[in-house]
Amino acid sequence: MKIIRATLKEIEIVSKLFDQYRVFYKMNSDLSGARKFLSERIANNESIIYLALDNGGNGMGFVQLYPSFTSVGMKSLLILNDLYVNPNYRKLGIGEELIDKCKELARLTNSAGLVLETQNENTVAQNLYYKTNFVKDAEHSYFFWKNDK
Questions:
Q1: Of 31, 47, 75, 138, which has the fewest beta carbons less than 10 angstroms from its beta carbon?
Q2: Which residues pair with 5 in a beta bridge?
Q3: pLDDT tens string 89-98
Q4: Region 95-113 average pLDDT
Q5: CA 21, 62, 125, 68: dihedral to nearest 10 degrees?
Q6: What is the DSSP letter of 78?
Q7: Per-domain residue ranges for the chain?
Q8: Sign of the alpha-carbon torsion through 135, 17, 97, 67
């Protein structure tokens, strides 16, 4: 296995994984929409995507980070927004490897750290985050406003 930073050259591989990720979260499959969305993020340097590939070049999983900032900390911050491992490759440590790559980037860029959210029901993901030394924030509440337009 190797982990690379995805570019437009890998867009087909990462788009398939991204589409599977969205379907996991009960969204309709939309491979062309996934391709367009990710192509724009990569082309505009709006996100960082790490892609895990097997020895044959097949996509095993991916993680997508969005750069942000912490005003109070006066530093950059990375939002770990998406993490997905293809079911055929689960239980092989790929999620941990992808998270380690994110931590490496945070150290290299002197970011304040990584922040993420996951559904309360997603205990598998929560267990992975605990295992990789994330701490559940008990000091802050998460709110969301949905634009209905």
A1: 138
A2: 50
A3: 999 999 999 9
A4: 97
A5: -100
A6: E
A7: 2-131
A8: negative
Q: What letter represents residue 114's amino acid? A: L
Please indicate whether residue 149 or residue 13 has the higher confidence score (pLDDT).
13
CATH topology classification for 2-131: Aminopeptidase (3.40.630)
Residue 15 binned pLDDT confidence (cut-offs 50, 70, 90) = very high
How big is the CA angle at 134 (ends 44 and 136), to the nearest 5 degrees? 105
Q: Could you tell me the two tokens for 79?
A: 């939002």
pLDDT at 142 over 90: no
Check whether 141 has a pLDDT greater than 90: no
Per-chain mean pLDDT for the chain? 95
Asked whether 61 and 95 are in contact (CB, 8 A), the reply is: yes
d(CA 104, CA 13): 23
* d(C-alpha 80, C-alpha 118), whole Å: 10
Going by the DSSP 8-state scheme, the letter that residue 33 receives in this structure is H
pTM greater than 0.70 (yes/no): yes
Using alpha carbons, list the distances in angstroms from residue 116 to 44, 53, 54, 67, 113. Answer: 22, 23, 26, 12, 10
Rg (CA), the chain: 15
